[in-house]
Amino acid sequence: MINTAPFYHVIHKESEVFFHAFQNKIPLLLKGPTGTGKSRFVEYMAHELDKKLITISCHEETSSTDLIGRFIIKGAETIWIDGPLTTAVKEGAILYLDEVAEARPDVIVAIHSLTDHRRELFIDKLGETVKAHEGFMLVASFNPGYQRGFKELKPSTKQRFVALSFDYPKPDIEAEILINESGIDESNAKKLVNIGRKIRNLTELGLTETVSTRLLVDAAKLIHSGLPKRLSVNVAVVEPLTDDPQTLEALKDLVALMI
Ligand code: ADP
User: CATH number for the domain including 45?
Assistant: First the structure.
């Protein structure tokens, strides 16, 4: 349960979409680059709807067994332990599969029957089918950067969800987020937002991922806690973006002109 309300700036009716998807028992897919507020949004909605949230950060080793459950040996006995997906299905929680495309293909197979009218989970190791609780909701996120080496989701999988796109917020909203998240003053928040926008537009650098709001928030926190501004931006924004010495130098020179 999320007890204190997370700060989330609604950008464009996404909370209404979430609410109606929940009411109508339709799974929701959040698309967008890393650090654009997808996880924060799910936490915010779980709090708004007063629901338990179970988050799984998927990676290439995440399998259906990790989600559904497994037998474990306890003393002389073998006992079954529900995995997080089974728990969410039984208890009626929100299950958030972060970066679902990264998981092993059997994860997509496992959630199949939960994403259509059946709303049921088949536990093959027990030979059991569990009907989802009224309040169960499946939310997944993925990063549609397929041209940069991220895994894709099959169209047939995507079409099982209602989907929302996330992107970097407009400058005034992003500045407000920085102020709220770090306590930084408005003038520095605006400078950070400008740096973010400038680097995002430098597509010729060929960065795998560009400056997310998360990186700007980190820079803002360091500045607010007293680290020199330029150093804060270099360590929080520039260094995490690239390891290429020339690109690093070019970005640091740019930052020196802007803050
Ligand atoms: P994602 O799940 O898309 O990778 P997060 O939800 O972790 O990204 O967001 C990263 C950070 O960016 C959050 O911790 C928060 O500080 C900030 N953020 C991004 N968008 C918003 C927003 N709309 N409202 C509030 N904070 C936001």
Answer: 3.40.50.300
